[in-house]
Amino acid sequence: MDGSKEPMEADGIECGQDAAEHFGFAAGYRNLNHGSFGTYPKSIRSLVHHYQEEAEARPDPWIRYDYPQLLDESRAAAARYLNAPASTIVLIPNATTGLNTVLQNLVYHPGDTIIYFATIYGACEKIVDYITETTPASSHKINYTYPISDADLLSRFETAINTLHSQGQTPKLAIFDTIVSLPGVRMPFERLTALCRHHSILSCIDAAHGIGHLPLDLTALDPDFLFSNAHKWLYTPRGCAVFYVPERNQHLIRSTLPTSHGFIPAPVEGKVINNPLPPTGKSDFVTNFQFVGTMDNSPYLSSTIVLIPNATTGLNTVLQNLVYHPGDTIIYFATIYGACEKIVDYITETTPASSHKINYTYPISDADLLSRFETAINTLHSQGQTPKLAIFDTIVSLPGVRMPFERLTALCRHHSILSCIDAAHGIGHLPLDLTALDPDFLFSNAHKWLYTPRGCAVFYVPERNQHLIRSTLPTSHGFIPAPVEGKVINNPLPPTGKSDFVTNFQFVGTMDNSPYLCISAAIEWRSRLTYHGKRGEDAIAAYNFPLAREAGRVVSFALGTEVMENAEDTLGGCFFSNVRLPLSYSEVAGEDHNKAVKVAQWIAKVLVEEYDTFIAIIFYAEAWWVRLSAQVYLTREDFKWAGGVLREVCERVGKGEWER
């Protein structure tokens, strides 16, 4: 890892005009509202650019190996600043995500009540509304008008607790601020935390205006949950926030928002979920938050299209918005992306829904796959179940093969099942006509094949289904709660004049939205590519499709193995080829699956550390496979080199180097 960075500014910056010179304000602009979105010094901007350059110089190695180490260093620095153990601190995009994560992880029973205060941030009150509409929980709002004394506020809190108990309710959690957003006033959060502890109520502190604004000693304060934006007062880039959960409560936070690779589902015998990321050696809590979908880790605009950070967020948004009844079943396929299967597990553990997995092993014909889908539907109906939604890919991640998603979508429509297409490898890779395809939901990463920055993804919901997607993840200002007479929630953002669906996704907590603004530039850049008299999308397809096939031929020849394909020759209808490595499962791993996974991890790490490359390796169907990606910046010679390197590394595996 290259640790060189732009030099930080010298010590001794005088507050006032001297300090202003270190920020990037336009001439004559006076930034009198730092509290809303913050800003950060030029030296920090240089550091951001450094990390972005590092990520683009070696994308896979940096994201998989360097970034976790840098993230740990950042977490440790935040922990020291807040006087908290590093094991209790993770980083999230913004405080809105923090409250959503807490409220959507807790388990509620009839009588459980969420207490909150009249000056709660508007988006946070909408989160509470969403929870009370979708779970057995109820809420209790403590009303008052500033100015009010701390003693009066504390008295009203105790009165609310006693009133709820007298009504047979259970105050489960109380939400309050360090500093209210509007009006900008300090709350007696220390004493409110102590009162929560005294009454055995979970304390949930929205410290959006906290770190860098007030001295916070989290060991002394000892809240149950606290989240604090670093991009407001600590001068980090947007969206960066600290999320504190003491070890006694980490078992309550089982899933991130969105649910991703770190989620640990309830054990099911024989069930294995592929995780493409290297093991961390850290606690489950820290691991859970380390990689939450692809996004820019250096710190969106039609009636059916909104922009989100990544495809993982897309599936989470769909599954966590749908309402499930006993008998409802989610159908998915054996080659689902690992994080997506964990989302399904989370839903089936926390709602009445069940799931049905269609098992198979590639290579498999499209006809066989479609037949298994229809069989699953008929089987579920015969068992009195209701197939509610089916999740399937355009192109599977590992192995990298094309699915017959068009025909699967048509079958869903025929059987009145919601079609949910994970097109993580979609836009910019395959021609997609959403009007003709007409899925119920589709999400597609733009940062993979369309050349936008991370994280940027397209989320398509036809107008007929937009009423089903009531909340973003996290719930924010755009959510429209069920009407309650006399209830008004403050929204600090200007009216949009757009549909409720588009408005909902326009502002989902403070974050760096610059990737969302790069789609048109990425499309324009693609339009300039040429190949054999073709231009733009035609040129890209004409170059990448044959190159992917040639890559498979070259590497399989070098290894003396074969390319994964079915009898219909449809699996390779994409920019991927999958080649088997010349390794024996019995000889190398003794037919031990765990050892086989370690072999794959060793190969990946050696490719990074010794050969300065990364190639996706998967242990699948009792064999090791390599996924090769064709791209406009690669040539046949690159894959010829890859074949030689892979042959050499496989020889080292055969000699037992992976065990040393």
Automatic annotation (TrEMBL):
It comes from the Eukaryota. Residues 69-257, 303-473 form the Aminotransferase class V domain. The keyword DNA-binding does not apply. Keywords: Pyridoxal phosphate. InterPro entries: Aminotrans_V_dom (IPR000192), PyrdxlP-dep_Trfase (IPR015424), PyrdxlP-dep_Trfase_major (IPR015421). Gene3D superfamilies: Type I PLP-dependent aspartate aminotransferase-like (Major domain). This is Aminotransferase class V domain-containing protein. It comes from Friedmanniomyces simplex.
